[in-house]
């Protein structure tokens, strides 16, 4: 099994996928599956003019407001996006990706199964490579298509099957306004890349303002040769966003998602960049991807679950509950412990706490005192959380 990564904007480190690779390997080991081979394609060194532009701006007499933000992620995003949309540089990026993909396949002749994982602008690049009809006859995108169609002269004695595609933080729906890929093109070409429906997973962090669903640019005909699944991550991207959201709910008495005020805009500013980059570091993302690759449904319950896992499932169903995958509030060591109760089967224990602003958090630890689950509710849902915790305590704990 081959897994090929394509990165997105503002990436200047060729080791960008290392954390996700480690998380994927962990998932495969836990399921006693054979470990895949990885290749992180890298095109982030194509664009250099941005550095020259900023050198001149830095040396000017009239500094810009918010210069660090402009100089950082924002200008890199715009610069990389414009770089790819430039015909000459876009062609160069596609050539780099094609050469790296061919090298990866060629060096592993025993492997016939290919999975592609892309992020940010990389999802747009892959979309363009697979489905655009605007390339010249010598464009490297067509070379990639020949490989996926098993019609490549370069790999004449080696067949590769594209099994799945995963996109993370994807702005395909927005960029397709410029790329103008039609649903019928998707349907026609996806059929050539896979003997069955081409399985596509799109992962969207709810706080990521660059990420959007893909289904708006498709229709029922394009889905006849494409199996699209879209999964959402709802947790806060960092402690600052979590604090702002909790404070906003406290001040307004309703979930932050339903508000339209300065605090909600501050949450966007606080969480958007982390949300767009943290796909590479998320265990939940890794679980989604491995389930996708192995064709296993997400959140499949098991009758063999211990009490700890049963408690986690029940807590996730509490109204207004938000999972905290980074266990942020507990790490800040500000919580007052209200309940600490051990599970009867000795699989771990539960903590219910309250932080200084009155927000209730619940944590699940395993038998080795390692935190494995956390979450919280706003003030309007506290009673529901307390009731469920009491039920769990009575039914599952000593």
Write up this protein:
It is a single chain. The chain has 398 residues and is of the alpha/beta class. The protein is 43% helix and 18% strand. The protein has 14 helices and 11 strands. The strands form 2 sheets. Strands 2-1-3-4-5-6 form a 6-stranded parallel β-sheet, with helices on both faces. The protein has a 5-stranded antiparallel β-sheet with strand order 7-11-10-9-8, with helices on one face. The radius of gyration is 23 Å and the shape is globular.
Our Rg estimate from Cα atoms comes to 23 Å
Distance between the termini: 46 Å
Strand content of the residues, in percent?
Answer: 15-25%
- Tell me the CATH superfamily of the largest domain: Alpha/Beta hydrolase fold, catalytic domain
Count of helical segments? 14
State the helical fraction. Answer: 40-55%
The computed structural class is: alpha/beta
- Order of H and E elements: EHEHHHEHHEHHEEHHHHEHEEEEH
Q: For the largest sheet, list the strands in their spatial order.
A: 2-1-3-4-5-6
The overall average pLDDT, rounded, is 83
Tally of domains: 2
Note the overall shape. globular
Query: pLDDT below 50 for ≥5 consecutive residues: which ranges?
Result: 300-304
Give the total of beta strands: 11
């Amino acid at each position: 099994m081959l897994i090929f990564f394509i990165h997105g904007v503002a990436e200047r480190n060729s080791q960008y996928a290392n954390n996700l690779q480690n998380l994927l390997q962990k998932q495969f080991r836990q399921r006693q599956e054979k470990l895949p081979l990885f290749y992180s394609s890298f095109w982030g060194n194509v664009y250099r003019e941005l550095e020259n532009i900023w050198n001149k701006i830095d040396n000017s007499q009239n500094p810009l407001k918010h210069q660090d933000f402009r100089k950082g992620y924002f200008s890199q995003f715009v610069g990389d996006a414009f770089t790819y949309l430039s015909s000459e540089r876009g062609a160069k990026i596609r050539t780099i990706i094609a050469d790296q993909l061919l090298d990866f396949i060629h060096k592993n002749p025993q492997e016939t199964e290919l999975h592609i994982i892309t992020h940010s602008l990389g999802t747009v690049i892959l979309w363009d490579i697979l489905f655009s009809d605007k390339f010249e006859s010598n464009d490297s995108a067509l070379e990639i298509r020949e490989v996926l169609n098993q019609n490549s002269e370069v790999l004449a004695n080696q067949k590769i099957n594209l099994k799945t595609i995963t996109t993370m933080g994807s702005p395909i729906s927005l960029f397709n306004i410029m790329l103008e890929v039609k649903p019928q093109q998707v349907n026609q070409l996806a059929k050539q890349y896979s003997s069955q429906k081409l399985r596509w997973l799109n992962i969207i962090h709810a706080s990521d303002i660059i990420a959007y669903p893909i289904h708006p640019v498709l229709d029922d005909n394009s889905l006849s040769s494409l199996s699209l699944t879209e999964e959402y991550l709802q947790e806060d991207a960092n402690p600052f966003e979590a604090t702002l959201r909790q404070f906003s709910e406290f001040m307004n008495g309703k979930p932050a998602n339903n508000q339209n005020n300065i605090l909600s805009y501050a949450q966007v500013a606080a969480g958007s960049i982390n949300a767009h980059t943290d796909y590479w570091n998320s265990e939940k993302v890794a679980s989604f991807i491995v389930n996708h690759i192995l064709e296993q449904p997400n959140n499949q319950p098991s009758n063999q679950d211990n009490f700890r896992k049963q408690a986690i499932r029940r807590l996730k169903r509490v109204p207004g509950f938000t999972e905290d995958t980074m266990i942020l509030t507990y790490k800040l060591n500000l919580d007052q412990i209200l309940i600490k109760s051990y599970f009867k089967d000795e699989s771990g224990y539960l903590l219910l706490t309250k932080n200084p602003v009155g927000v209730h958090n619940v944590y699940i630890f395993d038998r080795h005192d390692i935190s494995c689950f956390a979450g919280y509710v706003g003030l309007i849902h506290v009673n529901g959380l307390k009731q469920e915790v009491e039920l769990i305590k009575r039914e599952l704990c000593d």
